[in-house]
Amino acid sequence: MPVGSVEFLPHFGEGTLKIHIGLPLQKLNTMKQLLFLCIVAFTSNCQTDPFKGRDFSNIAKSTTFAVGTKTGTIQGGFVKELSGLAASHRNPGTYWTHNDGKKVTEIYLIDSLGNHLATCKLPLSKTQDCEDIAVGVDPKTGISYVYLADLGDNNSAFPTHYIYRIPEPAMPSGLLFPQMLDAESTETLAFQYPDGERINAETLLFDPNTQDMYIMTKAHGGATLFRFPYPQKASETTTLERLSNFPIDLATAGDVSPDGSEVLIKTKKKIYYWKVPTGENLGDVLQKNNPELIPYAPETQGEAVCFNLWGGGFFTSTEQAKSAQQPLFFYARK
Predict the structure, then answer these.
(1) Among candidates 157, 145, 158, 221, which has minimal Cα distance to 191?
(2) Whole-angstrom Cα distance, residue 143 to residue 166?
(3) I need a surface site. Which of 18, 114, 228, 281 has the fewest CB within 10 A?
């Protein structure tokens, strides 16, 4: 880098202006220095627009769903920091959930009232930072899988992240609750971000139409969407495909409807909603279409959202760290 030059480095959703001041630049008078720096900064920002003109500050309010109502409370202390929700396919009317963190060796099945129905033990000794969960059916085999997303990286410590693919267990009927289930098997799908970046994320989206998975990062001021293309192989580490940046602050959860026609992205204060027209690619729609805004009453540390299996609405819940009870809210389709 020459002495007295300026370098603009785009990173994530923001740009970083690095000014290298040496003797030649210092010899300029004060006014010339200010003018020079302003022109370079303005030009660089014009050339690098991280959101490509997207602005979510005045997007339309959605009329698709009613205001959320509390359906129940998750009690018993088995979930201390609820971080994800996903509708079960093999056990209709129930929902998989899990704890946040690095020691997630179980997932839990609850009903819409928050009752603990089952605990499924996973063959994992530890995790890095589990943050979201999804369920999807492989159309070739008809097998329903639970995808537990080990995405978190608050300290930018992990070069590799993991999604655990678990054949969804069916819950036997007519027994006392909660039941103890064992995962039939667990495949580990390893991935990295391009250029060795170490990025924090809490949102996993599973597209039932293409079997692609999407990961939206979590950061102040913006988010980046990455694609984990199908087929995801347990035998190798995949480098994700960077798609686009979004003016979404601190994305904490997301879900795709079971038919792939709707998408939710949840933050601490907002829920964004996209409709995916028939025949269009989910990733393309997220990138080219602005969302609508759901009428949402923010929860304390709200970190979970999922559609129900029949498309009648969606649930949210809260992490509420170290709390023994987490409320469930349902937003019914109008």
Answers:
(1) 158
(2) 10
(3) 18
**197 burial type by CB count under 10 A (0-12 exposed, 13-18 middle, 19+ buried):** middle
Whether the CB-CB separation of 263 and 256 falls below 8 Å is answered with: yes
Nearest alpha carbon to residue 304 among 98, 34, 59, 11: 98
* Burial profile 37-66: b = 16 or more Cβ within 10 angstroms, e = fewer: eeebeeebeeeeebeeebeeeeeeebeebe
The superfamily in CATH containing domain 69-332 is TolB, C-terminal domain (2.120.10.30)
Question: Position of tokens 């349902």?
Answer: 330
**Is the separation of the CB atoms in 133 and 148 below 8 Å?**
yes
With CA atoms as reference, report the closest residue to 113 among 75, 67, 146: 75
Domain positions in the chain are: 5-47, 69-332
CA pair distance 169, 24, nearest whole angstrom: 69
Residue corresponding to tokens 């978190």: 152
DSSP 4-17: TEEEEEEETTEEEE
pLDDT tens, N- to C-terminus, the chain (334 residues): 444 433 333 334 433 333 343 434 444 455 555 444 444 344 444 434 455 658 998 999 999 999 999 999 998 888 888 999 999 999 999 999 999 988 899 999 999 999 999 999 999 988 999 999 999 999 999 999 999 999 999 999 999 999 999 999 998 877 788 999 999 899 999 999 999 999 999 999 999 999 999 999 999 989 999 999 999 999 999 999 999 999 999 999 999 999 999 999 999 999 999 999 999 999 999 999 999 999 999 998 889 999 999 999 999 999 875 556 789 999 999 9
Element (H, E) at 25: helix 23-26
Tell me, what amino acid is at 119? Answer: T
